[in-house]
Design brief:
single chain; 244 residues; 6-stranded mixed sheet; 3-stranded antiparallel sheet; binds adenosine-5'-triphosphate; binds magnesium ion; ABC_transporter-like_CS; ABC_transporter-like_ATP-bd; nucleotide-binding; Zinc/manganese transport system ATP-binding protein
Length: 244
């Protein structure tokens, strides 16, 4: 069973084909790593899954309702000059299902506080977004997706410029979301992060996609200097035989 499936999906950007004939199911209740070189099409695929980019051919079959889909873009489009506190940002997670104009009830506020505590940002509740560090902002944004009760979460390089402690906190929260049944797709460039987070993996290269187990990559790099390799930029030989 899968709530998210790619069916002979072909995507283009600026008139040029970026990805062709992508097939396959993302597992529910699991984290799938999206892996590939710069320009391989990871963000393009994420846009298509969010419904923001129309396929040239094929389709994304997604059974998750729009109000339960969340996306953390690679480049934050958030206006940081807009006066909004961390708590206010987290509360906006109720908007997709509850509406923006109805205000919040006591239960919403209670959940918001629980979420901030879990992410270690209670002390930042009244801090303005423009006054946050990158890692603090990332915690707040993931807090909003928890508030939203996202069932599909697309994270485009969520750990870029984030310190190790924040990575630990965020990974634990993401693993919990998967355990609670959410479908997570995470763009990663780091082998160590892949080994800790991912259950499954879709590698993009040369305009095509290959599904593989994260273990197949980890085994391939076993014995190499610790933490050295970033993820491979082409399909590893061991994956070439895999079906698309
Ligand atoms: N708005 C756009 N207009 C035209 N071409 C684009 C646009 N956005 C991306 N592209 C092209 O589409 C291809 C895939 O880009 P994409 O951003 O999906 O790559 P990526 O795998 O996310 O790379 P990175 O690791 O650098 O984030 C690239 O060749 C890129 O130049
Ligand atoms: Mg990208």
């Amino acid at each position: 069973m899968s709530r998210l499936q790619l069916e002979d999906l072909t995507l283009a950007r600026g008139g040029r084909t970026v990805l062709e004939h992508l097939e396959g199911r993302f597992q529910d209740g699991a984290v799938t790593a999206l892996v590939g070189a710069n320009g391989a099409g990871k963000s393009t695929l994420i846009s298509a899954i969010m419904g923001m980019l129309r396929p040239v051919a094929g389709r994304v079959a997604c059974q998750v309702p729009k109000e339960r889909r969340a996306w953390l873009p690679q480049q934050l489009a958030l206006d940081l000059t807009f006066p909004m506190s961390v708590e206010e940002l987290i509360m906006t997670g109720t908007w997709p299902s509850h509406g923006a104009l109805k205000g919040y009830c006591a239960a919403h506020y209670r959940r918001g506080r629980e979420i901030m505590a879990r992410l270690g940002i209670s002390h930042l509740a009244h801090r303005q977004l423009g006054e946050l560090s990158g890692g603090q902002r990332q915690r707040a944004l993931i807090g909003r997706t928890l508030m939203q009760e996202a069932e599909l979460l697309l994270l485009d390089e969520p750990f870029a410029n984030v310190d190790v402690e924040t990575v630990d906190v965020l990974m634990e929260v993401l693993r919990d979301m998967a355990r609670d049944g959410a479908t997570l797709v995470v763009v990663l460039h780091d082998l160590e992060q892949l080994s800790r987070l991912a259950d499954d993996m879709l590698v993009l290269a040369g305009g095509h996609g290959r599904w593989a187990s994260p273990e197949s990559l980890l085994e391939r790099y076993a014995g190499q200097p610790p933490r050295a390799p970033r993820l491979p930029l082409t399909f590893p030989d061991t994956l070439d035989a895999g079906t698309a």
